[in-house]
Write a structure and sequence with these properties.
By secondary structure, this protein is an all-beta fold. Helix content is about 0%, strand content about 55%. The termini are close together. InterPro entries: Biotin_Carboxyl_Carrier/Decarb (IPR050709), Biotin_lipoyl (IPR000089), Single_hybrid_motif (IPR011053).
């Protein structure tokens, strides 16, 4: 089993968390929506699997590289 780690690509705030641990996700599903400079940025999973953990909460400010979620595949 592989684990995909999803990280923030820029400084942003967590606008909406769409999944919770244990949820089944497909490649391309949106996990969270970030907000930066009044733009909404969906954060997608690249692989199908099960959400192991969400490391963010709504309203949290993220720095580039912060861990958002882990998804177990296989």
């Amino acid at each position: 089993m592989a684990v995909e780690e999803i990280h923030a690509e820029m400084v942003s705030s967590v606008w909406k968390v769409l999944v919770s641990p244990g949820a089944q996700v497909a490649a391309g599903d949106t996990l969270v929506i970030l907000e930066s400079m009044k733009m909404e940025i969906p954060v997608l999973t690249e692989l199908s699997g099960t959400v192991q953990a969400m490391h963010v909460v709504e309203g949290e400010v993220l720095q580039e590289g912060d861990l958002i979620a882990t998804v177990a595949t296989g």
